[in-house]
Every structure is written in C-alpha cells, then in structure tokens.
C-alpha cells in the first residue's frame, strides 16, 4: 500500500496525458500571462490591506514590501522551474505528483482549494463591500439585508441587547439596521450578501465561455487599474509632506513585521499563472518569464504606493478599508477619490476572475489522473474550457459568499498557500537530486548551500541570543502545554532548518529553494493555532475523499498507465 500511496508520475507520462484529447485552446502569450498575474496580485490588497499594514508599521512598511517580494522570488523561481519542466494545468498539484508521489499530490491539490476557491469567497465578499460603497456614492442605496452575511446582523442584534444601541460602532449599526429591516419567515430574518453571489455568477459565466474572452476582460481591467495606480503615484507626489515620513518606523521592527502575513498575502497569485499552462502558446518559455515579471512590477507598484500614501497622510490615519480613496479625500481631491472607488471594484473583479479561472483547471488535472470524478475533466466542445469543473467552482464559491462572514475564510487561505509554496520549493531540491532538472528549460540559479545553510542557522541562533532575550524570556515564562499549543510551528521551523542544514551539507542542496522553504515556514508561524486546527480538519476531510474514491480510481494505482 505504501508503494501505491507514494507512486510518482513521470514527466513524460504527464505530458502525454495532457495531450490526449483535452481540447484546451492555446491562445495565451507572455503579455497575457503577465496581465493575468497582475490581475491576481494587484487585487484587494493594494486597495485595502495596505492601509492597515501602513498603520501598524508606519512608512517603513515600504521596506516590508521589498522584503516580502524578495522572499516571494525564491518561491516564484521554483514555480518557474517546474512550469518549464511540466507545462500542464495542475500547478503545485502536478509538481507534487512528480516529486513526492500521489498522496502528497492529493494533499496539495486539496490544499489548493483553500488558495483558489476559498480565497475567492473572501474576494467576492470584499468586492461586495466596495460595490455597495460605490453605489452609495452615486446615490443608489441597496437594502442592508441584501449586502452582508447574516452572522454580522445577528452579532449586532446580540450586542445591542447586551450594551445598548448607543454603544454600537459604525459597521455594527449598519448590521443592526439589516437585522431590523429584513423580511422574515416566521421569526427568522432573511439576510444574505446578494452582490457577492451575483459577481461570482457573472465571473463564472465569463470563465465558462472561454479563455480568450477571460483574457481580454482581464487585460482591460488590468490596464484600467494600473493606469489609476500610476495616476495615484504621480498625482500624490504633489501632496507629499516629508514630515509624515518621520518617524520612519514608529512602532519599531515589531510594528513593521506585524503586517508580514497580510503583506505576503498581497503577493500571492503569481502561481495562478501556472494553471493556464495548457492554454499557453509556448509555456516552457513564457511561464517563467511571466512569473518573474509579475513579481517585479507589483513589488515596484506596492513600494511606491506605500511611500506616497504615508507621505500624503500621517500613518496613524490610514487604518481605513479604502486607503487610496481616503488620502485624496483627505487632501480635498474628491474627484480622484471617486475614480479610485470605481477602480477598486474593477481591480477586485479581475482578481476574482483569475482565481475562478485557476480552480477548475486544477480539478480538471486531478480528474484526468483518476483522483476525481471523470466529469471534472470534461472540456466544452465549443468554448474549449473545463465546463463541469467551472460550474462546480461557481457553486462552491457563490453559495458560501452569500451567507458566511469574511474572517472565517481569510487565514485558512494563507495556510493552504504557504503549504503549497513549501512543497514546490522542496520539489526543486528533489528534481536536482534525482536528475529531473536536466529536463527543465528554466532552472533556479544554483548556489551551493553545503556550508551556507548551516552557517545561516548558526548566525540566526547567535542573533536570537543577542537580540531576542525578550522573546526567549516569554518562552521561559510559559507552560509546556501553552508552547505546544501556540508555538509548535516555531519549534518545527528550527527543526526543519537543522535538518536542511544537515541534508544540505550531505547532498549540496541549492540555497535558493531552501531559502524559499524557510521563509514560507517562518511566515506560517505567524498564523494562529486555531487556523491550523481547522486546516488539519480540512486535510482529514480530503483524505477521507481520497481513500473512498481517489485511491481506488487512480490511473496509476489501477495500472491504467505506466509510471
């Protein structure tokens, strides 16, 4: 059984499978891929979370964007090498099948549902908030009970009964209004987020009718939002007050690093490009280029926009959900604020489009391997898209976005993404060790980590001892039970670094993929224990499905194809 669980697919077999009657239209060039990547990366992050990051870290958060972009490069290079070696639509799922075997491939494919489908629930709910705000700006007021998850309204009603209506804050008052004005079936109020559901249906329809149509829509939306972001940067320069940049890091490195998970989340999306590999004209050449171009372009935009925002307005005023529009309202340039509000809706729509494009293609690839039902691999004869998988994705995203609160999904998405990134970086080490890298058209630049990985570990431990005594003292004051519950990932981080140092010395591991593993694992330690409990439950559910269906129907395990 163990042999079956970890049986690998060869690159040649994967390429043959991808060419047998899939019928996907090969229409994407490097410019289209860059556009899709920017559409995924420059989404809700630059129009919302950038404000909170600046509020916590001050102007120095611009350096955090540089650091995170630099960290993402290690992962992007690993993705690029795999994409040039295995140019099919499965993304990290397929890469894990080549490097680690079927069980790991299933686990990562299941985790990618969190990155794409579940993250799109967050994006759809965020889109709804911006859309409702934009409509209000134009004098169109949508009934409150049609604009939010019922949980918000029920919480507001419970709090009002506990503390009184006069003690409710902004969004809570809106939620209470939704509860009080909603139609009812008996005593049950009818409350749901209609805009979130509708935009998901519309985007799913666009993805269903063709990759070419999706690409054209994405290109147009990217052009609009990049144009506005450049206008914000150029226009905002004239309102910058250098004194707002002092102090540069008001809350120290702790304040800057507090936003590291949110800032990293702003960069994920470059991997979604790899799910369109079978619709690329020249995937082995264009995919690696597009991934690197996307990161560089988005990093420059993020850094510049952060410097402009913190220069126009004092960082302490930036804890708002729409910081780009807010800063121009602050300086009295209301017309620009209105344009930005409209653009934010377009920006988030484009991110929704790309992730809604990615999820069906991963399910299609898993179905092709026999791990999911055959219908998921069905290609529409006219539109040349994975039709059934696209429709299922629409339902999976639209229904929860109607009824669930956003914060239920946010951190789950990050866990799934970090998990995928680590396996892809680790997969490059396997490719180098096994000789598969010889088939790669693009390779991660090799830097011999034989001594450097261990040297880095020693330096890190010395710095921790010299400058981290406060953190160490905090550990000494906590019980073992608390440490195991809340700090276990930090312990795993140091153990993994020790193992990689030993193995790196033995096998001459390349330094860059190892750095990618360690950076992503460190960022994972920033997530709370509750998120990991939910993630483990999610994985257990996935394993149940695998052993009920995937294990028995896998083409490798039933001998339908040869490894």
Automatic annotation (TrEMBL):
UniProt subcellular location: Membrane
GO-annotated cellular components: membrane
UniProt protein name: Amino acid transporter
Keyword Transmembrane (UniProt): yes
Alphabetically ordered keywords of this record: Membrane, Transmembrane, Transmembrane helix, Transport
Annotated Cationic amino acid transporter C-terminal domain residues: 511-554
Keyword Membrane: yes
Predominant localisation class: membrane
Membrane spanning residue stretches: 33-55, 61-80, 92-113, 188-208, 220-240, 252-270, 290-315, 335-358, 385-403, 409-430, 451-468, 480-500, 507-523, 529-549
Domain of life per record: Bacteria
GO molecular function: amino acid transmembrane transporter activity
InterPro entries, A to Z: AA/rel_permease1 (IPR002293), CAT_C (IPR029485)
Bilayer topology term: Multi-pass membrane protein
A Pfam family recorded for this sequence: AA_permease_C
